[in-house]
């Protein structure tokens, strides 16, 4: 796909269109207040992204219940007290010309007790000494996602993206390894996907007709089965329950190593599905204009920019101005990140990945 085509608008089932094919990935950065409130560092980060040329900008994982927290200094949306800070973020994104979304998150069995988190496993076998959630507790968490979406709408966001990846609670429930329940949320593939579907349906019910809903899915680790996830995705696409599906791949070029789709690209397993009006995109080591074009040619409607957006907040504008643009090579120094506008808190978070940032 040509650079000019990358900057053509993309309609969504609800609300305004994306102005181009670049979405900012939801990046955890651990720079919020200890109470989950949006900090001055959050606001500065969002302002930088807002003028970077993206079509849609998501917040990082934003917890919907106090007990669902996963990280220190994680952004929160579990309280009306968070709305003011989120409103400022949404306003900055709108002023920059992009659409906005809060990524809704609950850590499930991976909630951190040291931060006030309450591990919430689907199975009694997952966390030693912690019993599985009751049906009523599952429904309470479902309703917390829905209430959080309503707060996002009140804050002025165009929509939300539901975090169903990486073994967090919705992904956990989809996994036959982590979900051995015998109620309506366990057993069959349909039942294990029920929590995710009910969250999405509930958000659509309580939010306005132009409110946009995305879903992030991953296909690796935590006992997830590719064939089942394809079946779940096919149902969601066919019913047009969401506006966009975000495939959270570690590498957008990765090949399926076993099973029914062995030898195919992971991406093609999903882009080959009938999608009706739903848009499908991927993340995963997208570091150049050339790679963006390849993925759009391979069937993606949009791409999600993560690492490349950390290195240059204006990645889309760089691509537009330089059709052969390539991101700086990694690892980069901490000085480079500071000089390019990242906070010390964000850099502290990034230090856990030495392939991305090296000590000075």
Automatic annotation (TrEMBL):
Species, as recorded: Micromonospora vinacea
Alphabetic keyword roster: Flavoprotein, Oxidoreductase
PANTHER family: BINDING OXIDOREDUCTASE, PUTATIVE (AFU_ORTHOLOGUE AFUA_2G08260)-RELATED
Protein name as annotated: 2,4-dienoyl-CoA reductase-like NADH-dependent reductase (Old Yellow Enzyme family)
One matching Pfam family: Oxidored_FMN
Record domain NADH:flavin oxidoreductase/NADH oxidase N-terminal: where: 5-322
CDD domains: OYE_like_FMN_family
């Amino acid at each position: 796909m040509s650079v000019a085509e990358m900057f053509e608008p993309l309609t969504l089932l609800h609300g305004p269109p994306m102005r181009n094919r670049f979405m900012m990935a939801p990046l955890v950065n651990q720079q919020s207040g200890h109470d989950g409130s949006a900090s001055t560092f959050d606001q500065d980060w969002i302002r930088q992204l807002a003028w970077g040329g993206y079509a849609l900008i998501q917040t990082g994982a934003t917890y919907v219940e106090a007990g669902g927290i996963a990280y220190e200094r994680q952004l929160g949306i579990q309280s009306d007290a968070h709305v003011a800070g989120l409103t400022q973020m949404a306003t900055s994104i709108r002023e920059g010309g992009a659409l906005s979304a809060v990524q809704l998150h609950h850590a499930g069995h991976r909630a951190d007790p040291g931060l006030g988190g309450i591990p919430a496993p689907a199975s009694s076998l997952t966390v030693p000494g912690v019993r599985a959630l009751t049906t009523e507790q599952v429904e309470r968490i479902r309703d917390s996602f829905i209430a959080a979406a309503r707060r996002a709408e009140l804050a002025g966001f165009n929509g939300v993206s539901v975090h169903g990846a990486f073994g967090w609670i919705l992904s956990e429930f989809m996994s036959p390894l982590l979900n051995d329940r015998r109620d309506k949320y366990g057993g069959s593939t349909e039942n294990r996907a029920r929590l995710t579907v009910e969250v999405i349906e509930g958000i659509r019910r309580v939010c306005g007709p132009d409110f946009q809903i995305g879903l992030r899915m991953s296909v690796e680790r935590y006992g997830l089965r590719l064939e089942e996830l394809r079946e779940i995705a096919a149902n969601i696409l066919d019913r047009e329950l969401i506006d966009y599906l975000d495939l959270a791949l570690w590498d957008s070029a990765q090949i399926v190593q076993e099973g029914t789709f062995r030898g195919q690209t992971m991406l093609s397993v999903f882009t080959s599905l009938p999608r009706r009006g739903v848009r499908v995109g991927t993340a995963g080591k997208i570091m150049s204009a050339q790679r963006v074009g390849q993925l759009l040619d391979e069937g993606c409607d949009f791409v999600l920019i993560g690492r490349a957006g950390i290195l240059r907040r204006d990645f889309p504008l760089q691509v537009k101005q330089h059709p052969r643009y390539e991101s700086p090579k990694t690892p980069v120094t901490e000085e480079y990140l500071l000089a390019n506008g990242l906070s010390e808190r964000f850099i502290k978070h990034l230090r856990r990945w030495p392939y991305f940032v090296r000590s000075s």
